[in-house]
Design brief:
Elements: H1 6-28, H2 32-53, H3 56-71, H4 76-84, H5 98-124, H6 129-151, H7 154-157, H8 162-191
Helix pairs in contact: 1-2, 2-3, 3-8, 5-8, 6-8
Length: 192
């Protein structure tokens, strides 16, 4: 039974090897150029493999979501330091505790992930997938601009407490990320 899905097994092994490769590159070198070239190399191997091994509909969907993830920018590591720097390090900063930033925000985000699933199920399940993905990508892009508001400390100038601002921004982003994820899950479940 296991080998009847030989294509999927091959792709799982390939992705595991690629993950180990990227992890090894990350540990062995600090060069951003090497990291970039390794990531592009993985994409050059992985994406055609989808199209060779899978049905075209599934391969296209996988390709879209891999490219969407690969091309999305993340500044999470750097923002951790911005949010948790002490008054000596950055006097105007929000000065969150590491536990608030890592635990409280993470816990609230997990709960809001369920809200994203519920709102998708109630209001968006009949949307055209392209419309939903476009709408959610636009919303995530707009919400990303809220980071700029926080970094420039405009929320404090408007009288909005840092914890409320960050909580609202994080919650909204998690809900919308669920909206982005659901069409892929639904389509893949129908195709497989």
């Amino acid at each position: 039974a296991f080998l009847r899905q030989a294509e999927v097994v091959f792709l799982c092994v390939l992705m595991t090897v690629m993950t180990i490769f990227l992890s090894a590159i990350g540990v062995m070198t600090d060069s951003h150029e090497v990291h970039f070239c390794a990531a592009v190399g993985v994409l050059v191997v992985l994406l055609p493999s989808f199209h060779i091994m899978l049905r075209p509909e599934i391969a296209k969907m996988n390709t879209f979501f891999v490219l969407q993830a690969a091309l999305s920018l993340s500044i999470g590591g750097a923002t951790f330091y911005f949010y948790t720097d002490s008054e000596d390090q950055y006097p105007e900063g929000p000065h969150f505790s590491a536990s608030f930033f890592a635990s409280t925000l993470g816990f609230v985000a997990s709960g809001m992930s369920l809200l994203g699933l519920c709102t998708y199920t109630k209001y968006m399940k009949d949307w055209n997938y392209r419309s939903l993905i476009l709408f959610s990508n636009i919303l995530v892009t707009i919400l990303s601009m809220l980071d700029v508001v926080m970094f420039l400390r405009l929320n404090a100038k408007m009288g909005i407490p840092d914890s409320f601002f960050v909580m609202g921004s994080s919650v909204a982003t998690v809900v919308i990320r669920q909206w982005q994820w659901m069409p892929g899950v639904v389509v893949m479940s129908q195709l497989c």
